[in-house]
């Protein structure tokens, strides 16, 4: 692997040979990371790359299994987040971890308030706070309650607090995910100011454009291993995308073109689902238009954090629609909640099956029938016999490995849990099925079964939106591909455009035809 070696001067932090394993998972394997004074260093990688684990090792949340961490050339052992903070390592997360019911001044000096004759010196706190806010050009009163401030201001206050505690290494974990473009610009002004002061900043982000705008260097992780460290000025967007996805240009997979399902001639058909300039939630997904026809599988491609899940959540009513129109079978429809979506013939298998999918303490049977019961309403309850028959039918149909229908779903393997959730939605007989990472974390055999089932459902006339981090899987399954970048739909690909190289070039160029 050709690795660009940035200047070795002014090293603040050096992590070498870091390894961390959890039961059944090697989260980090021999990972190196170096941060320098006056550097903004991006840390990027897809889901499961190991970014969060590396940060948690650095901040003392997890003990490392092997490796070494040194600060300014001195080896350190970090056993807790408090120890990390004392060593000058501070973290600001996407979700601001300050106290919303306290004032700005109270948050800045919480736990280290100046005192006078044994009592808190409020006059001095407010004066010091004003000096700190002025130095960072943060326009807010010291006495303002934190929850009255915008998310961007709260983020900046969190950064100011971190820097004001003798911070040498500042970790910004997805700080811009909830900010609009103007707020991001203000955040970047603050980051450049801190960089000029000699601070080392680790910027964890999914946004390519932001990384190129603000960062000097980048470290890329994939599947818990180091891909490399590079100077961003010397790394093209296309090379970055390829390294994150694990594809080299001379190793692009040549799929059997017969396996790719060609786009149907849908020009004369009314789409089952059509979005017109639809957007959802503040900063969720930019306005987009999209047509989904019966009998086709439409893939949503893009890097982690590109807005794929947010787009389908807006169609399903899981995120509030802020503007635009949604049509079902040509008729304008308001989807105000997932229950309304179900009534309109939609189904949604979420990305996180443990948090949003399975109900762990209920049985396989109860997990299968719960969506149908919700759709029918409490006044039309399923009989015990119907529940048994439905559960047995789908256990057999999807070959769900379980002792019996009454087995708690939490005792099943991940793949079989996924099949149960699929059974739940198939039982509602949906016409439009959203599948968000339906094969993640399951074995190859089950994965193949689910892919075949998706194609079978499309052949039966159902419309399917399919999200997967595995590009080969979508190329085998989808007839059309929607490419997402930084919460924008940038292009649709069909026919001979459905190949890995074109998709990666589209992501890297932001959809530009001339890139």
What does this structure look like?
With 515 residues, the chain is α/β, with parallel strands linked by helices. It has 3 domains: 11-251, Rossmann fold (3-Layer(aba) Sandwich), CATH 3.40.50.300; 254-345 and 430-515, P-loop containing nucleotide triphosphate hydrolases (Rossmann fold, 3-Layer(aba) Sandwich); 352-429, no CATH class. 33% of the residues lie in helices and 25% in strands. It has 17 helices and 22 strands. It has helices at 51-58, 81-86, 104-108, 122-135, 151-163, 181-196, 208-214, 237-245, 308-316, 338-343, 353-357, 364-376, 384-397, 414-426, 444-459, 471-477, 500-509; strands spanning 11-22, 25-36, 40-44, 66-71, 74-76, 89-93, 115-116, 119-120, 169-173, 200-204, 217-222, 225-231, 273-280, 285-292, 297-301, 321-328, 331-332, 346-349, 432-436, 463-467, 480-485, 488-494. It has a 6-stranded mixed beta sheet with strand order 6-9-10-3-11-12, sandwiched between helices. A 6-stranded mixed beta sheet has the order 18-19-20-15-21-22, sandwiched between helices. A 4-stranded antiparallel beta sheet has the order 2-1-4-5, covered by helices on one side. β19 (432-436), α15 (444-459) and β20 form a beta-alpha-beta unit. The longest helix has 16 residues, at 181-196. 42% of the residues are buried.
């Amino acid at each position: 692997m050709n690795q660009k070696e940035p200047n070795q001067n002014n090293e603040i932090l050096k992590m070498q040979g870091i390894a961390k394993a959890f039961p059944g998972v090697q989260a980090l394997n021999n990972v190196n990371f170096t941060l320098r004074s006056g550097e903004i260093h991006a840390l990027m990688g897809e889901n499961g790359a190991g970014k969060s684990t590396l940060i948690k090792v650095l901040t003392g949340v997890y003990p490392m299994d092997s490796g070494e961490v040194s600060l300014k050339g001195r080896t350190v052992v970090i056993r807790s987040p408090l120890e990390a903070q004392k060593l000058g390592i501070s973290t600001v997360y996407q979700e601001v971890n300050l106290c919303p019911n306290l004032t700005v001044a109270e948050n800045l000096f919480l736990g280290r308030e100046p005192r006078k004759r044994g009592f808190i010196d409020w006059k001095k706190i407010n004066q010091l706070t004003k000096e700190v806010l002025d130095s960072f050009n943060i326009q807010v009163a010291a006495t303002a309650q934190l929850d009255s401030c915008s998310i961007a201001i709260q983020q900046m206050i969190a950064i100011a607090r971190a820097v004001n505690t003798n911070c040498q290494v500042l970790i910004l974990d997805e700080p811009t995910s909830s900010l609009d473009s103007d707020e991001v610009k203000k955040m970047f002004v603050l980051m450049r100011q801190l960089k000029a002061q000699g601070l080392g900043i680790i910027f964890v982000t999914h946004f390519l454009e932001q990384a190129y705008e603000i960062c000097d260097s980048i470290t890329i992780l994939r599947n818990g291993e180091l891909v490399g460290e590079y100077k961003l000025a010397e790394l093209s967007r296309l090379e970055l995308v390829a390294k994150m996805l694990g594809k080299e240009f001379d190793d692009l997979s040549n799929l059997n073109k017969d396996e790719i399902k060609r786009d149907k001639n849908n020009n004369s058909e009314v789409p089952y689902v059509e979005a017109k300039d639809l957007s959802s939630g503040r900063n969720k997904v930019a306005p987009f238009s999209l047509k989904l026809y019966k009998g086709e599988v439409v893939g949503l491609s893009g890097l982690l954090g590109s807005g794929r899940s947010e787009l389908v959540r807006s169609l399903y009513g899981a995120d509030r629609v802020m503007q635009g129109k949604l049509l079902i079978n040509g008729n304008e429809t308001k989807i105000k909640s997932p229950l309304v979506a179900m009534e309109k013939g939609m189904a949604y298998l979420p990305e996180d099956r443990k948090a949003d999918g399975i109900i762990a303490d209920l049985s396989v049977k109860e997990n299968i029938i719960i969506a149908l019961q919700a759709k029918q309403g409490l006044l039309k309850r399923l009989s015990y016999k119907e529940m048994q028959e439905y559960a047995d039918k789908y256990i057999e149909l999807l070959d769900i490995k379980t002792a019996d229908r009454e087995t708690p779903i939490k005792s099943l393997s991940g793949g079989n849990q996924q099949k149960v959730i699929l059974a739940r939605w198939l039982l509602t007989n949906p016409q439009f099925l959203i599948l968000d990472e339906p094969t993640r974390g399951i074995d190859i055999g089950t994965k193949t079964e689910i892919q075949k089932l998706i194609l079978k459902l499309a052949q039966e006339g159902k419309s399917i939106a399919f999200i997967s981090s595995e590009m080969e899987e979508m190329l085998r399954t989808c007839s059309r591909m929607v490419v997402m970048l930084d919460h924008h739909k940038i292009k649709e690909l069909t026919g001979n455009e459905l190949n890995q190289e074109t998709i990666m070039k589209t992501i890297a160029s932001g959809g530009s035809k001339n890139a």
